[in-house]
Structures are given as C-alpha cells and as structure tokens.
C-alpha cells in the first residue's frame, strides 16, 4: 500500500522514473516517485535494492459526455533501459491486469505517446480513436489542457469495449498520474 512505501524505496523509484522520463525529470521534485496525482497502488519489480520496472495505479472517475466512468488509471510505466525488449514489460502488464481485477474496476485507462503505442497494443490495450483527454498539468493545476497523447483502455470487469461510453472528450478533472 502507498502509505507503507518507505522513503528509501521512494528514492530508488525516483531514480528509475527520472531515468525513464528525462523530459519531465524536473517534475519529480524532492525525491518523489510521482509527479501529478499520487498512485494508490504500484506494481514494481526489483533486482535486489534496485527497481527495474514500475507502474502506478489510481482509481478515479472520468467524465465522458454526461457519464462518469470508473477506471483504474495507469501511469508512470517504466522498465529499466537494459531490460526493455526482454519481456519484462509484458509481465508487468499482466501483473497490472491482475491488480486491476482485484480492485474491481471496469476499465484500465491510460494515455501514451506514439513512441509506445505499439507496446500497449501488443499487451491488449485498445486505442480510442478521435478522442482527446482534458486534464490539469502537475505544474499548473489552475488551467485545464487537452493532451495530444493517445487514450487507451482495457476492459477489466466490463464485458467489453462496447461498455465504454462514447464521446470525443475525456474529462479527467484532475492531474494525470
């Protein structure tokens, strides 16, 4: 549980995440292992005292049209550089799905850049075409912005993609994970 993560683990995760996200490394302030919304749950893999893979999970409601949709939002997905392409990411995705199933959320939700779209599709995530996400940035929580990232879902306890509400805009109403 997040309350039980000791400071030394946060520092180790901080190093993995700043290496994995160099373009936003300055946002991991004060040794934190999160940027915007803090994860409720994490799926991590360790080699000794060094984290080699990480995913943060946060349950939240997204607003799509007039409907509120409960999701398990996934973010801060990282695999150590030397282990990328070795199957660690696939195992990580399987463990995330198991965790989301235990949490009882209908859908997994994430936004990703084009450079990792293929990975997420290879582990079963479904791209939402012609859909944008609006949220607050971690460094400006007063101005909502629309992201150019690709929104993706994975039915977890939902029967399938058809259970996802239709709409061109996903309102996060908070900061991204």
UniProtKB/TrEMBL annotation:
PROSITE patterns, per database record: GNAT
Gene Ontology MF term list: acyltransferase activity, transferring groups other than amino-acyl groups
GO cellular component: cytosol
Domain of life of the source: Bacteria
N-acetyltransferase domain location: 1-157
Protein name stated in the entry: Nodulation protein A (NodA)
């Amino acid at each position: 549980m997040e309350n039980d993560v000791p400071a030394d683990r946060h520092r180790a995760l901080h190093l993995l995440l700043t290496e994995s996200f160099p373009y936003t490394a300055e946002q991991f302030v004060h040794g934190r292992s999160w940027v915007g919304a803090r994860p409720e749950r994490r799926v991590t893999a360790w080699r000794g005292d060094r984290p080699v893979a990480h995913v943060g999970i946060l349950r939240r409601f997204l607003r799509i049209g007039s409907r509120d949709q409960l999701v398990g939002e996934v973010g801060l997905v990282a695999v150590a550089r030397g282990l990328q392409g070795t199957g660690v990411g696939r195992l990580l995705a399987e463990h995330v799905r198991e965790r989301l199933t235990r949490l009882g959320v209908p859908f997994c939700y994430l936004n990703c850049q084009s450079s990792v779209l293929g990975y997420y599709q290879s582990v079963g995530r479904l791209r939402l075409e012609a859909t944008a996400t609006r949220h607050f940035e971690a460094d400006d929580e007063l101005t909502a912005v629309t992201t150019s990232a690709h929104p993706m879902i994975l039915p977890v306890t939902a029967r399938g993609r058809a259970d996802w509400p239709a709409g061109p805009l996903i309102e996060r109403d908070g900061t991204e994970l």
